[in-house]
Amino acid sequence: MSQATIFSVNAVARLRDQREEEGIKPIQARGWRAPRCRACRVIESHCLCAWRPQVETRSGVCLIMTNKEVFKPSNTGWLIADVVRDNHAFIWSRTEVDPQLLALLADPQWQPYLVFPGEYVEPARVTNSVATDIGKRPLFILLDATWTEARKIFRKSPYFDRLPILSLLPEKLSRYRLRRSTRSEHLCTAEVAALCLDLAGDTDAASALDAYFDVFSQHYLDAKHQLDMNVSTPAHAELLPFVQGTPPQSPIL
Q1: Which residue in 6, 121, 119 sits closest to 55, CA to CA?
Q2: Is residue 247 part of a domain?
Q3: Which residues span the domain enclosing 81?
Q4: Per-residue pLDDT tens for 128-144?
Q5: Do residues 62 and 142 make contact, with C-beta atoms less than 8 angstroms apart?
């Protein structure tokens, strides 16, 4: 069975392809010359594709991204779109809004939640829980950008003003090691999404995404440091129950 018949479309990958068709070039960060898998963005010797999980989710996700973020191989929004079947992604613009985004927010099957720290919002809009018994499916709006960019998107997107704000209360510090952050309590987008899924009762998807994120981080960093691919880790063992087929058990040479 082909990957296309097993997995849903990754909206972040589709958005990247659209930007490239428009003539926008990827950023040339350190290591950009290394051949990367087109599907998972990891250096080919440490390809992640065989470890993509397959789980059912009631929730949906919508990623609001910047022009640069969609091209970054270290982006973790891509992982969310790999795991959550109903995934959407849009490039943010201060002056224009994609009509498809507005249609998604107005779709009666969804209850959108804008995920953002509650201390920056009027208390009446803030919730720390997800309603699962209202006849609508939760749709998590995630601002997939740097913290500075996310605050700008939040302030300058009036179409989000009517949405409830889901403020998370994480009990553990971020495990994200692919980029530097000045504050360890700032979670990366995949970690945020896993917390959202757990709140919504999509516990299998939350567990799969957490493990997938850890496996991605290891493959990415091992490739970066020219280490052999190691699939005998606790993260790989946690992810394995959610993987279809038999992943490779040794490095791809």
Answers
A1: 6
A2: no
A3: 3-22+33-242
A4: 999 887 899 999 999 99
A5: yes
What is the pLDDT, as a whole number, of residue 237?
Answer: 96
Q: In which band, very low, low, confident or very high, does the pLDDT at 114 lie, cut at 50, 70 and 90? A: very high
Find the Cα–Cα–Cα–Cα dihedral 45, 49, 53, 59, rounded to 10°.
120
The tally of domains found in the chain comes to 1
Angle (nearest 5°) at CA 137 between 136 and 140: 130
Using only C-alpha atoms, what is the Rg of the chain? 18
Examine residue 196 and state whether it is found in any structural domain, yes or no: yes
pLDDT in tens, 161-181: 999 999 988 665 555 444 444
Instruction: Judge whether 27 lies within some domain.
Output: no
CA distance 97 to 190: 24
Contacts of 66 (CB under 8 A, 6+ apart): 91, 92, 145, 149
